[in-house]
Amino acid sequence: MAAVIVQSWRETYRGLMRDEVLDAPDLLERRERFWAAALTDPRYSDNRALVAVRDGEIIGVAMSGPPLEPESPWSRQLFLIYMLAAHHGSGAGPALLDSVIDPDDVVGLWVAEANPRAQAFYRRHGFRRTGDPKVDDGVRVICMTRDPRLTIGA
Questions:
Q1: By its UniProt entry, which Pfam families does this protein fall under (predicted)?
Q2: What pLDDT does residue 139 have?
């Protein structure tokens, strides 16, 4: 899981994130520690983490959980969904998304403003831009929300 995240970050965020972050010698080790905690620490027991596998290899990772901000209007937050670039368009991304969030959940997420591919993916799955951008790890991110209680009129 950690290796997929690191490779995906390097494929997706090169030029958006600082090279010293993407090329840090301990990046994989830090991601491994993150996943060890995310999958075993009882504080994260309400999170849902899943992988997409093709030919015995992990090609994608997704995780959602209770919103980080207590005052959030969301019932769930999509913390991450990453797919190796070679598998974009394979259908694994939508399958991961549907596996970590329920259709009735009001879901929010943060996505890089300079990542139109990801934004288009989320729009295809009912998310809309909401709120003001912020900077996270040196990357300008926007909020997107999917609220199944709302319908868009003609």
A1: Acetyltransf_10
A2: 83
